[in-house]
């Protein structure tokens, strides 16, 4: 895992690869450290918006807290969709596949904080595997 981040954080060698579809942020074979940090922050923000939005809808419907909760959840879910577009990688499938691992781990944390959920060791192991998958999908060196 450390090797993946170390390789991803190295200096970019050679010209950028892939089309420039991100408004100037081209994808390189390796990512600078700042880009990895930005990408991880965007994943966390996306998770807060999506998980929080889904939780608000759940509270509005299942816990009968009302339409304001549901509406706030819809807004948060829309923000989640927007945040994902700021990822430096231009491949939608890669971003959403990697984000799935962030969602799994983030959902367990949200449940612990918001609902008093206590994950067992299998929950924790599963989340760790998912986070490892995020690191491999997003930050493994590509040639």
Shape: flat
Beta fraction of the residues? under 5%
Number of strands: 0
What's the gyration radius in Å?
A: 17 Å
Average pLDDT metric: 84
Cα distance, first to last residue? 19 Å
Protein architecture, described:
The protein has one domain (31-139). 69% of the residues lie in helices and 0% in strands. The protein has five helices and no strands. The chain has helices spanning 2-8, 33-62, 67-84, 92-115, 121-139. The two termini are 19 Å apart. The model is unreliable at 1-22 (pLDDT under 50).
Give a quick set of tags describing it:
single chain, 143 residues, mainly alpha, flat, disordered N terminus
Explain briefly what this protein structure is.
With 143 residues, this protein is mainly α. The chain has helices spanning 2-8, 33-62, 67-84, 92-115, 121-139. Helix 2 (33-62) runs antiparallel to helix 3 (67-84), helix 2 (33-62) crosses helix 4 (92-115) and helix 4 runs antiparallel to helix 5.
